[in-house]
Design a protein that fits this description.
By secondary structure, the chain is an alpha+beta fold. It has two domains: 53 residues; 60 residues, no CATH class. The chain has three helices and two strands; from the N terminus they run H-H-E-E-H. The chain has a two-stranded parallel ribbon with strand order 1-2. It is elongated. The N and C termini lie far apart (101 Å).
């Protein structure tokens, strides 16, 4: 006796798209793991979840960006560009000043867009941020005389 062919579910296109997505996700996780971008002790299910969550965040940001119209703020903006970053060989764009009525300071530091968040570059970034914060901190109030 032969088994009758059942009709395909109505959501077959969604199921196929999901299967393709999972294969692509597995390929992305394998690629990242082979190149040392994921901790070696990270389980495959956790790695898949991590990568899928990251991709979802990027997709959400890309959907939101076209409609985003920021207004200029009254505070200065400090921007750090990776030398080998997304904006070009020198890292600067020179466009951040339009978002601040108090001006913008753009600084280029060594590393790539992601490498600046790891040693040794993150230490230099931290030092520069600390110097900028110290420069704008108000002086501590002096206690009244005789207090």
């Amino acid at each position: 006796m032969t088994t009758p062919i059942r009709p395909l579910p109505e959501d077959i296109e969604r199921w196929i798209a999901r299967a393709r997505w999972l294969r692509a996700l597995d390929a992305a996780v394998a690629w990242l793991a082979e190149r040392g971008h994921l901790p070696p002790d990270l389980s495959i299910p956790l790695a898949r979840e991590y990568v899928a969550t990251h991709i979802a965040r990027v997709e959400t940001h890309l959907r939101l960006l076209p409609g985003f119209r920021p207004t200029a703020i009254r505070a200065p903006i400090h921007v750090w560009h990776a030398r080998d970053g997304l904006a070009g060989p020198d890292g600067s764009t020179g466009q951040w000043g339009v978002y601040s009525r108090a001006g913008a300071v753009e600084t280029t530091i060594a590393g790539t867009h992601y490498a600046v968040m790891a040693a040794p570059h993150v230490s230099e970034l931290g030092r520069q941020v600390a110097r900028r914060l110290q420069a704008v901190q108000p002086a501590p109030a002096m206690p009244p005389a005789g207090a």
